[in-house]
Amino acid sequence: MNCRAFALAAILLAGAALAAQQKPAAIERPETILVNGKILSADAKFTIHEALAIRGDHILAAGATSDIRALADAKTRVIDLGGRTVIPGLTDSHMHAIRAGLSFATEVHWIGAPTIADAIGRLRDASTRMPAGAWLIVAGGWTERQFAEKRRPTQKEVVAAVPDNPVYIQLGYQWALMTPKALDALKITRDEDLSAGGKLERDGNGALTGAVAGPQPAIVALFDRLPKPTFEQKLEGTKKFFLELNRLGLTGVIDPGGNNITPPDYEALFQLWRESQLTVRVAFSFGSQGNGGEFDEITEPVLKLPMGIGDNMLRFNGVGERITGGMYNNDKPTPADKEAFEVIALWAAQHALTLTVHWGNDASVGQLLDVFSHVNTQIPIAPLRWSIAHLNDASFETLTRMKTLGVGWTMQDAMYFNGDATIRQRGPVARRIPPIETARKLGVVIGAGTDAHRVASYNPFTCLQWMLDGKTVEGISMRAAEERPSRADALRMYTIGSAWFAHADDRRGSLEVGKLADLAVLTKDYMAVPVEQIGAIESLLTMVGGKIVYATPPFK
Q1: 28-83+513-556 sits in which CATH class?
Q2: 3-class DSSP state for residue 192?
Q3: To the nearest whole number, what is the mean pLDDT of the chain?
Q4: What is the mean predicted confidence (pLDDT) over 188-202?
Q5: DSSP-assigned beta bridge partners for residue 314
Q6: 253 pairs with which residues across the strands?
Q7: Which residues contact 339 (CB under 8 A, 6 or more apart)?
Q8: Are strands 446-449 and 408-412 parallel, antiparallel or unpaired?
Q9: Distance CA 117, CA 415 (A)
Q10: pLDDT at residue 6 above 80?
Q11: Span 71-119, pLDDT tens digits
Q12: How far is CA 375 from CA 343, 346, 381, 402, 416, in A?
């Protein structure tokens, strides 16, 4: 090319560049807008909007209805909220959702049953839907204190309702009730037929009642003897359970592993993810069953899954909640117990893994934090977002250590179900259990949740109501006012607070421009309804990434 031609080409290119700069940029049009609502952004200022615009899976704009309508074109879907309240999709920071989903389609659920008659009626109804002679299993999520009768059902009552089915009913991890057909099927006639510590209960005349009591390992082992769902039932159950969570405004869960679940049990979840059928975002962990050989049990599957692998719907989130048996529900770990735990904790830090640990009592949690501190001197753990689950009686000193280390707290509503027992055992100390406001003011990151579904209900609004009023299922006022958060702060703990534990607070947890469009349109105004009515709130419309995953009239 000669000089003249080169100069001409340069002029043409410059002109084209100038024209491109002067050409107005194409306006992004929303695919969906929500208008005429009360949209709680849950951002740092707790901004409230009238309308929201969504394009793809993210929020395009938020503001006044007139401004958002102006962005729309003829192709935009318009959803008129009719003044209803919208919140960010809720995320449960500690739910055994994968395990619950595996058997959800083959279980009977007593969550929310007001009377024993209602609960047993659910067994009777299930027996008519399921094959003749099928097992009827209630895996948990209930308490006798929710019943008007304030007692547990008897074997006689259950057999009268469903005489032709083997029935297994589990209460937490301390008690289970079985009908004669169930006992026969499992070949249980004496205490020796149970795992260590399990005992068959007898009445005053020495006759068996059908109940089994014992420590957690004995009940876990008993549940493991029940028939397992087929793979197709696991797929169906997971889809149904996640839809049930969507009905309650949940769009995310952080699953810490737990009892009765091993890596092969995750395959149903993985298949639904591969087929793009998940309606809840899942951040999952791998842990151990605590029976020895935990290092290999944890590291073998984890080495195949780098931290954070996955996408916005399914993400590997590290290890927990049981790392070793010696540091799980053990208030007096030996030096050997702590050493075995630290080997895995240090390995997790070296591999940049998030770690969550189940711990019950403040009196002994210092031993766990000592291990965390020792690991922290070698590899900073704050960027890894390690956390402690439960720890309802956390002290000011413990929370201060957690804040210093950058350790978060996944807090659940166990006291809603068990608060009366805590009041009897602990006296005035129970007034600060759990110390939600103390932790928040110290700057400890709090993720709200339920620990469902064996030991508690999965309903997030039950938890939110309890966070705000401190009352147990029986209506006993337990937690003092100074440890009750505001409605805005409680909602943040269930949204952006929980998202922090999944390393996702930059992408979801608040309704802000650029974030994922996860939201729920509520049946009642969470910010204005009397606090005692919050537990009855449900979602009318739930969206995950701008996609409607649950809808009921008037939005169906």
Answers
A1: mainly beta
A2: helix
A3: 93
A4: 94
A5: 282
A6: 92, 282
A7: none
A8: parallel
A9: 25
A10: no
A11: 999 999 999 999 999 999 999 999 999 999 999 999 999 988 999 999 9
A12: 9, 6, 8, 14, 35
Whether 97-223 and 28-83+513-556 are alike in CATH topology: the answer is: no
Q: Are 35 and 70 in contact (CB under 8 A)?
A: no
Residue in 464, 482, 485, 355 with CA at minimum distance from that of residue 412: 464
| Dist. CA 332–CA 138, nearest whole Å | 33
On the question of pLDDT at 271 being above 50, the answer is yes
33 contact partners, CB below 8 Å, separation of at least 6: 51, 52, 53, 54, 68, 69, 71, 72, 76, 77, 78, 79
Q: Which of 138, 153, 90 is nearest to 453 (CA)?
A: 138
Half-sphere exposure of 210 (CA within 13 A, CB side): 20
Neighbours of 343 (CB within 10 A): 14
Residue 7 has pLDDT above 90, yes or no: no
Q: Which of 367, 345, 365 is nearest to 355 (CA)?
A: 345
Token code pair at residue 65: 């209805």
The share of the chain scoring above pLDDT 70, in percent, equals 95
Closest CA to 147 of 532, 476, 473: 473
Which pLDDT score is estimated for 290? 87
Which of 356, 343, 479 is closest to 409 using CA atoms?
356
* pLDDT per residue as tens digits for the range 464-479: 999 999 999 989 999 9
Instruction: Give, in order, the Cα–Cα distances in Å from 205 to each of 131, 201, 202, 334.
Output: 36, 11, 8, 43
CA distances from 111 to 147, 230, 421, 435 (A): 11, 24, 20, 26
CA atoms 249, 252, 257, 262: torsion sign: positive
Domain ranges of the chain: 28-83+513-556, 97-223
Of 349, 340, 403, nearest in space to 367 by CA? 340
Peptide bond into 453 cis (omega under 30): yes
Peptide bond into 434 cis (omega under 30): yes
CATH class in words for 97-223: alpha beta
Phi, psi (deg, nearest 5) at residue 370: -60, -40
Q: Which residues contact 341 (CB under 8 A, 6 or more apart)?
A: 323, 324, 326, 327, 333, 371
